[in-house]
Amino acid sequence: MRTTVLAVACLFPFALASQGFAQGAPAAAPPAAKAAEPAPWPKDAAALDSLGAKLVEDFFRRIVAKDWAAIDAASLPGLQRIGFEGAFDRATNLESLKELGLTAANVTELHATRAGDALVVTCQVQADSTRDGQKLPKSAASRLGVWQWSDGAWRMVAWAALNMPAVRPVPGKPRFAGDEALNKEGAEMISRFLGAQHRKELEAFDAMLTEGVQVVNFKGQKLRADMIKGAKYATCEAPSIVDARATRSGAITVVTCNLSMAQKVGMESLPADPAPFMAVFQGTGASAKVIALANTNRPK
How far apart are CA 34 and CA 197, in angstroms? Predict the structure, then answer.
C-alpha cells in the first residue's frame, strides 16, 4: 500500500512479353513500420505502487491546477468515468471535471496491480470538493483507475469515484450516446459476467476474472480472491442492466451501465436501486477477462 498527501505504392515490376521492351528495375520496398514501444513495466510490487501513485498524483494535481489540456492528453480515446452522477466519456468527462471544485486530495492505501497490458490502481481519497455548488463529504472514499501504455506514455482508460452525498442520488443517464453496436456488445459482456454470479456458476465466474483484477465497492478495495469468496457466499437477484455504454481502446473495453442487482452478504444488503456500475474487460467475446470493477451501490 502507498500513502501520498497532495495539494494537489509499392509498384510491382511487370515482365513484358513483347520483344523490344526491357523489364524495369524493381521499385524500392517501403520502410518497415516502427514497432510499438513496449511498456516500461516496473520490476517489483513496490515500484508498481510507485508508478500508480505518480499517475494518481498527476491526475489530481492537474484537476486542482485546471490543466485540462494535460488531462485530455493523458486520456485514451475510449476513456470512461463513473461517479454517483452517472457515466462520462472522454469529452464529457473533461467538461464534468471543469465543474468539480477540487482544491486538495489526500491519497492513501494505494495498491497497483498488472492485469495483462493494463495497470490497475485502487486507493482511498479524502478530497475537498464541491459539485453544483454543494460541498461533497470529505471522508475517505474508494477510487479506481486503469491505465494503458500508448504512444510512449501511460494513459488513463477508466476511472471510478465512489465519493458521493450522504444520500446517494438517483443516477442520471450517461452523458454520451456511444456506438449502438458496441453498446450492445458491452451489455452482453456484463450480462454474461454478472449472470454467472447470480446463477452461482462459480467456475465460469472464476474463469472470467484475470490475475491482477481489482474492485472497489461500498466495502472498499478488493482483490480477485475477495471476489471469488463473495460470489460463493453472497445471494443476489438477476441483474437488470440499462443505459449500457461501451468504449474500446485497443484490447481494452470499458463498459458502464446503471445496474439494479440486489445482493445480500452476511448481515449486509445492497438495494435493487439502480446505481452506476463499471466493468473493464481485456479481450472480446466469450474469452474476455475482467480486469477491473466498480460498483457505486451501497446499503441504505
Answer: 43
Cell for 168? Answer: 446517494
Q: How far apart are CA 278 and CA 280, in angstroms?
A: 7
Give the cell for residue 238: 438477476
Helix (H, G, I), strand (E, B) or coil at 63: helix
Phi-psi region of 38 (alpha: psi -120 to 50; beta: other; left: phi over 0): beta
Distance CA 114, CA 202 (A): 23
Spacing of C-alpha 95 from chain mean position: 18
HSE-up (13 A, CA, CB side) for residue 219: 14
Dump pLDDT digits (tens) for 228-256: 999 999 999 999 999 999 999 999 999 99
Shortest CA distance to 293 belongs to which of 199, 209, 232?
A: 209
C-alpha to C-alpha distance for 161 and 103, rounded to whole angstroms: 16
> Which are the contacts of 220, defined by CB distance < 8 A and separation ≥ 6?
124, 142
Residue with cell 460498483: 295
- What does the alpha-carbon distance between residue 274 and residue 254 come to, in Å, rounded to a whole number? 19
Q: Which domains does the chain have, with CATH numbers?
A: 45-161 (3.10.450.50), 180-295 (3.10.450.50)
| Calpha distance 236→262 (Å, rounded) | 6
Residues 251 and 37: their CA atoms lie apart, in Å, by 16
Return the sign of the alpha-carbon dihedral for residues 183, 184, 189, 191: positive
Return the C-alpha cell found at 128: 475537498
The DSSP secondary-structure symbol of 65 reads: T
State pLDDT tens for residues 128-174: 988 887 888 889 999 999 999 999 999 999 999 999 998 889 999 99
DSSP string, 231-300: HHH-EEPPPEEEEEEEEEETTEEEEEEEEE--EEETTEEE-SS-EEEEEEEES-GGG-EEEEEEE-----
